[in-house]
Amino acid sequence: MRHLAVLAALVALAAAGPRERRQTTEYERCQDGTKVCVPYYLCQDGKVITDGSGVIDIRTASGCSNYLDVCCADPHTTDPVTPDPGHVSRCGVRNYNGIDVRIQGFQGNETQVAEFPWMSAVLKKEVVSGEEINLYLCGGSLIHPSIVLTAAHCVNKHLSSDLRVRLGEWDTQNEYEPYKHQDRDVSAVVIHPRFNGSNLHNDYALLYLQTPAELSRNVDVICLDNNPTILAPHHNCL
Ligand SMILES: *[C@@H]1O[C@H](CO)[C@@H](O)[C@H](O)[C@H]1NC(C)=O
Ligand SMILES: *[C@@H]1O[C@H](CO)[C@@H](O)[C@H](O)[C@H]1NC(C)=O
């Protein structure tokens, strides 16, 4: 069910298309009437508004309808955060506490912002009533700035030109992105030569991205083993 929900969310996201940053005057008023509800990272000189300890608790009512909005007197109207040019790529670094802020009060083990920076969504571009939308196919892992590893059964029936990869996405229902997601078209799909679609042996595929991902705090690679071990047949990997 959770997977279906995620899928539905991704489809919804894809259908929505790019959203414009709202003007201050369009922001919803907070309950006190004087302030407005804005995404947490747009308040206070671009610094995250929290309880002082770098934490937002979504159970504490802000008076705003969106769970990640805060009441703000003087919000930024433009996005204050630009990709960190000084980012030093490190493979496989999990941001247990998110980046900039830790969100508390989740009920279902939701991830923090950029908790798994290598996680990718593999999407299929489709034109519906003259408008291009992205359908969610499956997940993948960024193993190199230009290569995503995914399952062969997920992409073997699609043309590379129909595929797209989304990196650095967090909440598919919101453009709540202090760090923007990155979309990349796929230039080539390489299926494992011994992939067997009947029993899913060697269910691996590499997606080559048309332009490399820009590695940043929310988009980075997972580590590859430099000394791979050949495991015995029937070895349980999990
Ligand atoms: C959250 O994760 C923990 C540990 O992985 C697990 O025991 C628990 O059942 C999960 N809770 C939910 C609601 O998925
Ligand atoms: C693929 O798997 C099926 C089912 O196990 C098997 O019968 C078939 O021989 C396999 N094909 C190849 C090319 O290995």
Which tags fit this structure?
two-stranded antiparallel ribbon, mainly beta, six-stranded antiparallel barrel, 238 residues, Thrombin, subunit H, binds 2-acetamido-2-deoxy-beta-D-glucopyranose, 26% strand, 2 helices
Q: What's the gist of this structure?
A:
The protein has 238 residues and is mainly beta.
Walk me through this protein's architecture.
This protein has 238 residues and is mainly beta. Among the domains are: 27-80, no CATH class; 119-209, Thrombin, subunit H. It has two helices and ten strands, in the order αβββββββαβββ. The protein has helices at 2-16, 152-155, and strands spanning 36-39, 55-57, 69-72, 102-104, 119-128, 131-144, 147-150, 163-167, 182-191, 205-209. The strands form three sheets. The protein has a six-stranded antiparallel β-barrel with strand order 5-6-7-10-9-8. Strands 1-3 form a two-stranded antiparallel sheet. The longest helix is centred in the first third of the chain and has 15 residues, at 2-16. InterPro entries: Peptidase_S1_PA, Peptidase_S1_PA_chymotrypsin, Peptidase_S1A, PPAF-2-like_Clip, Trypsin_dom, TRYPSIN_HIS. GO terms for molecular function: serine-type endopeptidase activity.
